[in-house]
Specification:
Blueprint lengths: L2 H9 L2 H35 L10 E4 L8 E3 L1 H34 L9 H18 L1
Antiparallel strand pairs: 1-2
């Protein structure tokens, strides 16, 4: 089996396609959460703590010198990233929790025993009649 045919067999498996869709949706969800945190959550928090814009919070470690840019420790962006992570992790946790609950409901659903066919019922009756004749 050639490498190309092996790759083709791997790439069209359901799990790989599902994973790719999940990664794409996760990336889009990450952008939405980043915008939510940066544009909706952080501004009111900044107002509450005295009009601070978190994305501007930084410490200059070394000033710009000629062509060299300043060396800046941007801890405000780091704080924003932590909040992004917490929101994304919580959303994923809630999604997994819902999926697990649905799986438990599916597993808990009682499985009905298959109804016996007419042949099975007749064979059972014949067996019972034969047992009765042997005892008599």
């Amino acid at each position: 089996m050639s490498v190309i045919s092996e790759f083709k067999a791997f790439a069209v498996k359901g799990n790989v396609v599902d994973m790719a869709v999940g990664i794409i949706l996760g990336a889009a969800f990450g952008k939405i959460v980043s915008s939510f945190v940066g544009d909706v959550v952080m501004p009111p928090i900044g107002v509450l703590v005295g009009g601070v814009n978190f994305s501007d919070l930084a410490v200059t470690l070394q000033a710009a010198q000629g062509e060299l840019p300043a060396v800046v420790l941007a801890y405000g962006k780091f704080i924003q990233s932590i909040i992004d992570f917490i929101i994304i992790a919580f959303a994923i946790f809630m999604g997994v929790k819902v999926i697990n609950r649905l799986k438990k409901e599916e597993a808990a659903a009682p499985v009905q025993a298959p109804t016996p066919t007419t042949e099975t019922v007749l064979l059972g009756e014949i067996r019972d009649l034969l047992k009765g004749q042997v005892k008599s």
